[in-house]
Amino acid sequence: MTLRPDFSTTLHELSGRRDHIPGFDTKPSYVLTRYSFLRALGLVYCVAFLGLVLQLRPLLGHNGLLPVQLFLQRVEASLGNGLASYLSVPTLLWIDAGDGFMMALAWVGLALSVLLVCGYANALQMLALWVLYSSFVHTGQLFYSYGWETLLLETGFLAVFLCPLFKDGWSLQDRSTDRWILLLLRWVLFRVMFGAGLIKLRGDPCWLDLSCLLYHYQTQPIPNPLSWYLHQAPEIFHKGGVVFNHVVELIAPWFLFGPRRLRHVGALLIITFQMLLIVSGNLSWLNYITLALCIPCLSDGLLLRIAPTSLRQRPLRSVPASRARRITTLVLLALIAVLSIGPIGNMWSSRQRMNTSFDRLNLVNSYGAFGSVGRQRREIIILGTTDPELDAKSEWRAYEFKCKPGDPNRRPCVVSPYHYRLDWQIWFAAMSDYSRQPWFVHLVYKLLQADVDVLSLLDSDPFDGVRPAYIRADLYEYEFTDMAAGGWWKRRRLGAYLPAVSLDNPALINIIGDFGWPLYETGDEPPSPL
After folding, report:
1. Dihedral through CA 369, CA 372, CA 377, CA 379, nearest 10?
2. C-alpha to C-alpha distance for 507 and 501, rounded to whole angstroms
3. Rounded to an integer, what distance in angstroms lies between the CA atom of residue 380 and that of residue 336?
4. Partners of 477 in beta bridges
5. Of 279, 283, 296, which is closest to residue 229 (Cα–Cα)?
6. d(CA 530, CA 523)
7. How far apart are CA 133 and CA 92, in angstroms?
8. 22-35 CB burial, b ≥16 within 10 A, e <16
């Protein structure tokens, strides 16, 4: 085969065992790697911005559970109305924290994400996606405090440098600088996996005695139907699963910086592990973005074996990197090296912290998951009644959430990579007292108001828009049933989590007022969703 005069060839001509650009060198190419990674990242961005579009108002809106407007006002009250506040919380929402502006940004982010999936990608677009999503992560407070949020920001920032500045949107191009960015993405994947492995060894003895999976499938935040079946497996299966976990999280990450074939082995081990996690539970898009991060570890030669024929026919051009691009890459490498000092120190510290950022922009972070595994599953069940006077005959009806366990006969859901943020946060709330969860008290107050936005976060309203007179919350212990019992869950009541309260409860009103949340008079109509 001879090179064309314009130095072009096709992916089809690189199929089979050929893993490099003929006529140039024997180094593996990563053109299809770049193409696949950006498209996978676009899918994750789509899910993230879709969650904002559907859940932003009830969670972070003006009348939401944790209003962004009030949060920024508190920052200004603490740091002053000036540069210190803007640097402390870098976000576009300083311009306007109103519901209309925030929803507009969320829709723009979703549109740019769809364009990325469909085939348009340039550096300005990727930078816009990163700025938009970071604006919500930095102001999302408790509901945006998860590790996959900062993981998406760190990955999205590096992806900016994989794309041309403006034109050539989605063309497959092999640039020497891309390989350095791919190396930085592998560094992210290394910290995700190795950090998770280290935190397990330090966090809970069950990871050392190989017993953690005896409990995990049942006590994880949001189990799915397969979680029930996996929980029934014999002990040797669970112990073998923990051993495999340690191999993938503590050994395989080191392969990512080895020779190409060893790197492929490490990436394929991680891919297998992430697929097992996906089918065994609902962990939002954590596993999906980790899968996306595995793609930079794979060369074109491997990806071409599974690529569709149409993709193999796309033109491949070798374009020398400009001087400006080389300088930009060197500056980026230096920046990431400096910012990695904190995460590296954290990984080797005996007091390792999970999912911690070491800079305001979340450019380089530490990660980790399930440093400890619960032995019991506790669930908060919220109940309401329309009876004006409470007595032994009062009829209480339970609020069912979209995905968290409630009705013992209800089948666990499958929702990942989507994320029901309220369901997740109530799982955490069950581990502590309601006095440490003021947002939960605000949720109860909203339910007493029959707030339309907040009710949209639930699976159904047991009162069909009518305001309940009282709401209470009980604490239950949940366990999976066994094969012989039928159903999905069995439960027993542990006691009251929140005593019955009404809208005119003085303590409830004081809490709402202390946090600056809007107070409603009993005769007011519920807030309109419009």
Report:
1. -60
2. 9
3. 42
4. 378, 492
5. 279
6. 20
7. 10
8. eeeeeebbbbbbbb
Q: Which region, left, alpha or beta, applies to residue 112 given φ > 0 means left and ψ of -120 to 50 means alpha? A: alpha
Q: Name the token pair of 48.
A: 């993230």
Cα–Cα distance for residue pair 76/62, rounded to 1 Å: 17
Which letter does DSSP use for residue 359 in this model? S
* Residues 468, 474, 480: CA angle, nearest 5 degrees: 125
Q: How confident is the model at residue 6 (pLDDT cuts 50, 70, 90)?
A: very low
Identify the H or E element spanning 498.
Answer: strand 489-501
Quick one: pLDDT at residue 331?
A: 95
Contact 416, 514 (CB under 8 A): no
Question: Residue 271: helix, strand or coil by DSSP?
Answer: helix
Q: Is 54 left (phi over 0), alpha (psi -120 to 50) or beta?
A: alpha
The residue whose two tokens read 């993230």 is: 48
How many other C-beta atoms are found inside a 10 Å radius of the C-beta of residue 295? 24
Displacement of CA 439 from its chain's centroid (Å): 20
Q: How many degrees, rounded to 5, is the angle at CA 267 between CA 263 and CA 273?
A: 150
Question: Would the CA dihedral through 29, 32, 37, 38 be positive or negative?
Answer: positive
pLDDT band at 18 (very low <50, low <70, confident <90, very high): very low
Give the length of the chain: 530
Residue 505 CB contacts under 8 Å (≥ 6 apart), including other chains: none
State the Cα–Cα distance between residues 226 and 276, nearest whole angstrom.
11
Listing DSSP states for 440-507 in one string gives HHHHHHHHHTT-HHHHTTBS--TTTTPPPSEEEEEEEEEEE--TTT-SSEEEEEEEEEEEEE-TT-HH
Count CA atoms within 13 Å of residue 50 on its CB side.
15
* Res 127: pLDDT: 97
Q: How confident is the model at residue 21 (pLDDT cuts 50, 70, 90)?
A: very low
Q: Name the CA dihedral angle for 292, 297, 303, 305, rounded to a multiple of 10 degrees.
A: -130
Q: How far apart are CA 162 and CA 126, in angstroms?
A: 9
List 501's β-bridge partners, or say none: 471
d(CA 349, CA 142): 26
Cα dist. 444→386, 438, 439 in Å?
A: 14, 10, 9
The rounded distance, in Å, linking the Cα atoms of 255 and 265 is: 7
Instruction: Express each pLDDT in 428-467 by its tens digit.
Output: 999 999 999 999 999 999 999 999 999 999 998 999 999 9
Residue 22 vs residue 382, higher pLDDT: 382
The residue assigned the tokens 């990431």 is 336
